[in-house]
Every structure is written in C-alpha cells, then in structure tokens.
Design goal:
Blueprint: H1 4-13, H2 17-23, H3 25-29, H4 33-40, H5 50-57, E1 62-67, E2 72-78, E3 85-95, E4 101-111, E5 121-126, E6 129-135
Antiparallel strand pairs: 1-2, 2-5, 3-4, 5-6
Helix pairs in contact: 4-5
C-alpha cells in the first residue's frame, strides 16, 4: 500500500495543466497571454478552442452532441476535479470438477469518481469555440 500511494500521486501530477503545457509548449506559446494565464490555472472561458481546453483540463470523461433546428453543439463533460484514487481488493472461492478447489483474487486501482454521476463541469463548443462553461456547485 505504501508503494501504491506515491505511484498514484505521480500519475496524478502527469495530468496537471503544467505538465500538459510542457508537452504542448509550442502550441501553448501561440495562445494569447490572457488565455495562457487561465490555462495555467486549469480554467477555461468562452472563445477557447478545443486545443486550449485540452491543455487546461485534459481529456473529458465523455463527449456528446446536442443538435437543435438551428445549431449543433459538442459538449465535453468533466468529473470531479481532484477525485481521489480508489483501491479495491477482491477474493473469490469456488469448487470445480472432482472436488478441486479454485481460488482467485485481484486488485483494482482506478479513479474514485463516477463520471456520469459526478459530473462537475460541461464545456460547450459551437463552431470550434467554447460558447459556455457550466459548473455544478456542490452544497
């Protein structure tokens, strides 16, 4: 367990805005200074392009499209920021033919959030630009 926690912290750090900026430095340098400042803080705003949002927030948990009679929008959904990693263990027992016993076990490490039930932010794009950012406030 002591070895898993540092590994999870390292993996979480890989997905920070700073790390994504470093991996996309040339592209980041082409953004306007005001956008760069928001991206460094992990924030997005209307007018941002998909590339700007990807660097600021990372990959969305899911994408879907909303189409009305006069417009088509792409919506990126993000789960809870800073969701804690979850660690689970399982153990099984059973018997097979001729009385032989079968033992099984497993370990699962993954995100602790339920992306669909824990949606915290939606970024709405129209014509390749953010038109709105919807954040759900927790009580």
């Amino acid at each position: 367990m002591r070895r898993i926690v540092p590994l999870l912290l390292v993996l979480a750090a890989c997905s920070s805005p700073q790390r994504r900026i470093e991996r996309n430095q040339a592209l980041f340098n082409t953004f306007p200074p005001a956008a760069q400042e928001k991206i460094k803080k992990g924030e997005v705003a209307p007018g941002f392009t998909p590339d700007m949002v990807l660097i600021a927030l990372g990959k969305p948990a899911r994408k879907h499209t909303r189409t009305t009679a006069d417009q088509r929008q792409e919506i990126w959904s993000y789960g809870e920021r800073g969701a804690r990693p979850a660690l689970g263990f399982s153990l099984g027992f059973g018997s097979g033919y001729y009385g032989s016993n079968v033992y099984a076990g497993g370990v699962h490490v993954g995100s602790g959030s339920d992306w669909y039930g824990d949606e915290r932010m939606r970024v709405v794009f129209q014509n390749g630009q953010v038109v709105s950012v919807e954040e759900r406030q927790l009580p």
